[in-house]
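May I ask you to review the protein record following this short note?
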Amino acid sequence: MRLYDAKASLYATLLGALMYKTFGFTPSTKCWEPITGRGWRSNNLLTVLSETKQLDEQQPSKSKWEAQILLKLSSIIDPDLGRDIVSLGFIKDLQIDDDYQVSFDVELTTPASPLKEEFKIQCENLINSIEWTTGKANVTMTAADPSRIGANPDTPFGLSQVKAIIAVSSCKGGVGKSTTAVNLAYSLKKLGAEVGIFDADIYGPSLPTMVTPDSDAVEFVGRQIKTLERDGVKLMSFGYVNEGSAVMRGPMITQLLDQFLSLTFWGPLDYLILDMPPGTGDIQLTLSQKMNITAAVIVTTPQELSFVDVERGIQMFDSVNVPCVSVVENMAYLETDVEPKFDERIMSDALQFVLKEKGIDDTHLAEELVSVVKSSLQDSMKQDHNKLRIFGKGHKKRLSDQWGIEHTFSIPLMEKIAANGDSGTPFVMEYPNSEQAAIYKDLAGTVAREVVKVQYANNRNRPTIAYNSKNHLLEISIGNEDDKDTGTMPPADLRRECKCAACVEEFSGRQILKPEDILDSVIPASMNPTGNYALSVDWSDGHKSLYPYKQIRSLLKSTREARQPNL
């Protein structure tokens, strides 16, 4: 080897050592080739840099792997909060071992989240797609500890570690409110949450009949009453500590409830289900104010008269800033296993008689009509899964159109559900795999997600609607960061779209309000959110309207399209 060849070889060796020191690897020999009489040269400098980048992706340095993992995970968006799980702070205890196996915890806001399995699969797939990992990411789903939350200074000591209080309410008795409260609580427990039930009906406590505790001995922790338990759910009712119901005047009941709340120690809970006494009076309002209720579930039945009760319940909770997140239509239908029977001969004779009166004497035609009626009836029963709606079709569409409540659940009128209410064992515990238990599970998952929105995303994602008096326009911004609609609208356009009973006929949907009767000069005197999904507006013409946000968004899009010139 000539001297300059030796020097070139030495330079190549030194360059390799420098690259190893700088980038953490030695370039492969394929990147270099000998030059006769001249030493070594790079095949392609870009090849060297590309190899550096590839190896960096395959086995990053300790200072880089964490950022790469978090960047991958930031593509997972929480649909309820509208942000990625990294910026939300869900990723905890991120580690990587010497074999490049990645492990971390995903700490959700609630253990009852129905999204936890979906999040886990997404995390595993994203991390396993990184080339330098083992392909066996260890993802553990956890939830924030209720004992770590900061309590309101005015909260009674016994409730200081309760994350969320869910009121289950009805405006009249006998609609299955307590049955719903108990099965909701045990469904949340089955989703992994720590749950308690407080029976606030002093006049007629139902919990002792519906749930038999593991031990009925009342114990004390210091000066606090220790809750009873059944299958991991904490229980407390006036009926557990005092046989029978109370015979007292309203003010005395309020004082007794106040003492009961102050003396009961619940410990760390994700959810406390509050079985409210029926009605919308002083006791209900006092409970709503003193207990700092997070959200409410209204229980009703499908009758027309019950819709009025639902409205009263929503308005009561709205007056104390408690959002109504769901409505349960109890006894919505009767499940029938036997198809309806009718006498084909009698129907055929009746049809022949009618046909003869019309001048048609055709026995064969009458029999064909009987066959058509029978087939049509059988098809309709199959489409409705043999559900006999003895109290009517319910109010799902009206609740959505008028109040913006999308989450309504229909619970059947069923002997087993009623029997379990009297046996001391909740229905979802005895029949966990039934179709009805699945409905309660869906209700529990919905409540868990809506509570997250109330507690963590209420201010961030709530639509903003303001009146600009200078331009005489409503300025609107609706939607989350990834799907936001913004624009302006004349106030009169929104006023003309009111869907209340005075403006639209409830049964036919016929428009009562005439658009020309609304002056263009009308303005909103005040605007306030109602629950999570609607806006209440007091107009300058004396009318009060309620608009679901989805209706405002649809109207905003229509206004924007109308302004665009035809192409």
